[in-house]
Task: structure prediction
Amino acid sequence: MSLPDFHERQFVLATDLDGTFLGGTDEDRRQLYDWIEDNRDTVGLIFVSGRDPEFMVETCSSGDLPWPEYVIGDVGTTIAKVEDGDIRPIEALEQDISGRWSDSGDRVRTALADAAGLRLQDTPFRYRVSYHYDPESYDPAAADLIGDMGLDVLISDNRFFDVLPPGVSKGPSLLRLLDHLGVPQGRVLASGDTLNDLSMLIAGTYAVAVGGSEQPLLQALPQDEKIHRAKAIGAAGIAEAMTQFNLHPGSKEILKNVV
Result:
C-alpha cells in the first residue's frame, strides 16, 4: 500500500541525530521509532544533521533507525531524497548551495593549514570544510579570515568548527526543502541539541531543544511560544514537545510511556 504524498502528512519531524533522535534511553528511542513506523501514513521524517549521507545510510541499514524520506546533511549543505536505501541529492535545491560555495574547499584548507586549535577532519565534504576544534588553543583570527573570504563559520558542541557557504545552514536548508515539497511550517517540529541546530530551531516551525542541550544553544534561543525547552533527554524530549504542541492526534496516548 502506497503512502500519501509527503506534503499530505499530518505531522513532519525534522530532527538532528546525535544527542537528539539518537539520544536518551534505548527504551525511549524504541518507543518513538516504533510509533513513527506505525504511523507512516500520517507522519513524515526528515533527518537534519551534521553527519554525512553515508553515515545515515549505514545506520538505517543496520536497523537501528527508521528510514527518513528526506535528509539535510553536512550541516545543511546536502539536501536529498531517500529512495530505495539510497540518498539522492535534489539538484534543484543544491544548485544554489554549490554556487555559494564556489569550489572554496582548497582555498579554505590552505588558509587554515596552520590555524591554532583547528585540526582538519579527514571526511571529504562537497560544500563545506570541517575541523576538530580545541577551544583552549584556538585563535579567533581563523574565523575573521574565513569571514574575509565571504564564507560562514559555525562552532558547535565546543568541539566542531565548520566552514560553510554564506547563508547556508540547517535552518535555511530545511525551509528550502519544506517549500520545495509544499509542506506547511505549522505541521513541522524541528528538534536539536547543539548550536549548529539554532538556525533550524528559529526558522519558524515548531521547535524543541531536547533535554541536555548545550548551554550556548539554550542561551541563544529566543523566548517564543513555538519553541519548547524540553526536560526529557533525546528521543523523550522530542515526544515531550509533540505532546506539548499537540502535533499529532495520537501522540499523547502512544508516547505517554516515553515522557
The chain is about 35% helix and 25% strand. The CA atoms of residues 201 and 207 lie 5 Å apart.
